[in-house]
Prior knowledge:
The protein is α+β, with helices and mostly antiparallel strands. The protein has helices spanning 2-22, 38-44, 57-71, 237-243, 322-332, 408-411, 478-501; strands at 28-34, 84-86, 93-95, 103-109, 114-121, 128-134, 146-147, 169-173, 180-193, 201-215, 227-229, 250-255, 260-265, 274-277, 288-296, 299-309, 316-318, 337-338, 350-353, 360-363, 365-369, 374-376, 381-385, 391-395, 397-399, 405-406, 414-419, 424-429, 454-457. The strands form six sheets. Strands 1, 4, 5, 6, 7, 8, 9, 10, 11, 12, 13, 14, 27 and 28 form a 14-stranded mixed sheet that branches. Strands 22-21-15-16-26 form a five-stranded mixed sheet. A four-stranded antiparallel sheet has the order 18-19-24-23.
Amino acid sequence: MGFGCNLILVLVGLIFLGSRLIDAFGTFGFDIHHRYSDPVKGILDIDDRHLPQMGSVDYYTAMAHRDRIFHGRRLAGAGTVESSLAFIDGNDTYQLPSLGFLHYANVSVGNPSLWFLVALDTGSDLFWIPCDCRSCVKGLVTRTGRRVPCDSSSCRLRKQCSARPDICPYQVNYLSSNTSSTGILIEDTLHLTTEDSSMKAVDAKIKFGCGIIQTGSFLDGAAPNGLFGLGMENLSVPSILASSGLTANSFSMCFSSDGAGRINFGDKGSLDQGETPLNLDTPHRTYNISMTQTVVGDNVTDIDFSAIFDTGTSFTYLNDPVYTIISESFASQTEETRSQPSSDLPFEYCYDISPNQQTVQAPLLNLTMRGGDQFSVTDPLVFVPLEGGGTVVCLGIAKSEDVNIIGQNFMTGYRVVFDREKNILGWKASNCYDAIESNTLPISPRVSPSGSPAMSVGPEATARNRSPRSRQAQPGSMASGLKRLSYTHFIVVASILTIFFM
């Protein structure tokens, strides 16, 4: 009996320890907003008169041009990348750097806290904000910040330590022409709120850039309040939060069709999500994945290719042969009449629809990932109203001459998980508004119950002011749900062992 009592005490201790370990990680999140959303335009004081209307020909042309500028790539037939873009009516010229990054989040830093609307970028690592800077909107003044010394393991420019050993300088050069941020690293507080029902405030100590000199498109409105790097290196915020024991080394981004969404740090996804391994043998560590097959309606093509999942790119860019395979398969199964290619649009495969037409019959598009899971593109089509009346619907893929990029248009309707612990990319259909645990349906279900290899789609209204989530008490996140599941398993096993040894 004494042995049984001792065993019970040991198991109770293990259960308590397990619960503490399981609850050690939390999830934290921010609302995210599209560049053209009203919250972003309001905070950055952008005049609507200098922006093309969302959904117009000018808008799609501008966003595609922005993709080329920001990623330094030259698309097929684009010629020389220019710094400005003339709209169709010829009355305005819009400077592309002011288009900025694609998504932004409002974050709170320092003590007293200041809010910064920062650009989100999965293609870079450092989080920096304007701080004691020249030619910037506002700077950070805080009582809790301290400079990172030059001998810190976080400091990469140690060759400059002899000049000022008490500071760690940084310089980040971006692909956009002559665009950079230069300053020093500091350590200060990033204010977070847990995603569970308690909404507990958590102050995370992180190292980030205090930007003193910004150049290029940063001076033209690209990221006037700073940039939030989400890359895979140690200096990115997801890496820092994980190394501090605050979250798992994973985060998710959810994209709604109305331009709003959610980013959640520590979210490792769900047991029923689709998954594929990340390619880690690339020259630059990015969220690169491999595909083995394309499925367009009835046409199945086995083809191996890789692509970068880039949340900061508006559209999807594919090179040959996969671009032609998907586009021609799509065209052969689309009932609408193909329109003449227009130099005003970045898309080659467009179709005329009648003014009163509400739906378009088009084949489903699926990508088979390495490992066998399928990524179903919720809505690959783009509806474009024309200046002279009428509407065309286009396959939202542009041709690339270099890298393949799965852009945000293919991710709409999904919660995409960037799991850097397991080195996988995960995805699950989501509407971005409900509690994460209940996200089971795409924004607009496209597949008929019979599973027909065709879809009927129509233009969707845009609710640009809708908040992606209520900021009142929120249900627990998916990650916390998995923790509860693991804890339940732990208790069951412990109970069985107790009964067995009694």
